[in-house]
């Protein structure tokens, strides 16, 4: 079975008129998302996450490289019906929640009784059934985000692409959405989740990729990324806090770290002192620590967003360059990308 989502060597450049400024949002970007996993897509603002998602959704084309979604090239119309997409900023017209969801279901080819059922199920999934008759103009930001999620779910998609799905939600709604995503995965569906809420990502994702300046800087399972290789945390009881220099006292227990090579010796010391070892575990970094480490700006480099540098002095991950392209702003004509060589 082909991967649910695959980016292969994709570069995406945006050009603006009239100054011809070129921004390279993705550089030789490659990523593969397997079927049935919840994949976290992380990166600081401006790293290129939305660009990657919009390319996958077929809203625009890459400057170079190729991508496949559910085995078909990006932009394949029939495949889009098997995909649910939630953009970071949901634009919804002033109509009732039910009418809005029915509209999106209709766009996905549903009608009649199946559309009724799908609309009801989508609104129930995000706990908005009791609000279905209210106009969206009266909804809070969090409620609108749930409507956005309902429209992504209405076609019972095989692949869900979610850009910041829980940023406006309160803790209870976040828990509900987390459970919903886990339920989806248990049905064999794939979820591609872009989020700044690293604690949420840690709770639901099987694998993550961290994007920085348009390049993937790390990808893997959370456990492999967060476990450090050389430090072990030992929890023991029945020993004096002075036995290990770096002990932290927690009720009647001591917690301390030792290097892997000292693990055996430390355990024997606990036993010799008449104590008991409660647990021995590799030290885990937090996802936040890893994220900050991998996405820190390079020393002396121009700030990522909003500044420019000459193409001639740009390194492999430095994307601001000047070019000339005598056409309309790219963002107003997303499908007809200009020749990337003009960048
Ligand atoms: P993220 O989603 O990670 O915040 P984006 O994909 O939105 O990142 O942006 C990546 C880079 O591309 C940024 O420098 C951003 O300013 C630039 N960019 C995004 N969209 C456009 C656009 N339509 N026109 C010009 N530049 C853009």
Number of strands: 15
Task: Provide mean pLDDT, rounded.
Answer: 85
CATH superfamily of the domain at 5-82 and 157-224 and 287-342: P-loop containing nucleotide triphosphate hydrolases
What is the highest CATH level, the class of the domain at 5-82 and 157-224 and 287-342? Alpha Beta
- Through-space gap between termini: 37 Å
Q: How many whole angstroms does the radius of gyration measure?
A: 24 Å
- Tally of DSSP helical segments: 10
Helical proportion?
25-40%
Major sheet: size, sense and barrel closure? 6 strands, mixed
What is the 3D shape?
globular
Biggest β-sheet: strands ordered side by side in the sheet: 6-7-8-3-9-10
Task: Give the helix/strand class.
Answer: alpha/beta
Q: CATH topology of the domain at 5-82 and 157-224 and 287-342, which one?
A: Rossmann fold
Bound small-molecule species: adenosine-5'-diphosphate
Element-level helix/strand string: EEEHEEHEHHHEHEHEEHEEEHEHE
Per CATH, the architecture of the domain at 5-82 and 157-224 and 287-342 is: 3-Layer(aba) Sandwich
Low-confidence residue ranges: 303-343
Report the sheet-strand fraction: 25-35%
